[in-house]
């Protein structure tokens, strides 16, 4: 089951998908850092919603130097600054594009800062690409001792 909103995610929680774990929405909770840092070494699972992306787009977003090429391509929500005097001098219209959203924003934005690879077997799992209730239940069962679940929306 793919949760499109915080309310739907909470209903998933009440159905027993998240069992005894705490579910937070990153976009709705301003005190998220205080909550997660109150527990020593919390175990956190991030659930990130978003559209499907092609294999090539995913590979490009995994390479830090190439990830900015995907900004403004329709696969992400992009915020842009007002025209800058000096920091964006050579950029188009003197604005800086900031990804915020489901593909390049959130946890995936880290790929623009660090070089990371997932396990190749992850890409073969249809359940991984199309979340469903049974798959999430199994995932949560495997995450023993999980302190928090964050929904990136």
From TrEMBL:
GO terms for molecular function: flavin adenine dinucleotide binding; oxidoreductase activity. Gene3D superfamilies: FAD/NAD(P)-binding domain. Belongs to the GMC oxidoreductase family. This is FAD-binding PCMH-type domain-containing protein. It comes from Schistosoma curassoni.
């Amino acid at each position: 089951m793919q949760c499109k909103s915080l309310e739907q995610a909470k209903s998933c929680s009440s159905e027993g998908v998240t069992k005894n774990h705490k579910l937070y929405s990153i976009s709705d909770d301003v005190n998220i850092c205080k909550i997660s840092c109150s527990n020593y070494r919390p175990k956190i699972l991030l659930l990130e919603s978003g559209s499907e992306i092609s294999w090539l787009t995913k590979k490009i977003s995994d390479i830090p130097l190439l990830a900015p090429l995907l900004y403004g391509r329709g696969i992400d929500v992009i915020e842009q600054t007002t025209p800058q005097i000096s920091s964006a001098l050579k950029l188009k219209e003197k604005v800086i594009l900031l990804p915020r959203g489901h593909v390049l924003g959130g946890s995936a934005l880290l790929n623009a800062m660090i070089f990371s690879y997932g396990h190749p077997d992850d890409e073969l799992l249809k359940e991984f690409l199309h979340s469903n209730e049974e798959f999430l239940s199994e995932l949560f069962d495997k995450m023993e001792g999980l302190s928090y679940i964050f929904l990136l929306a």
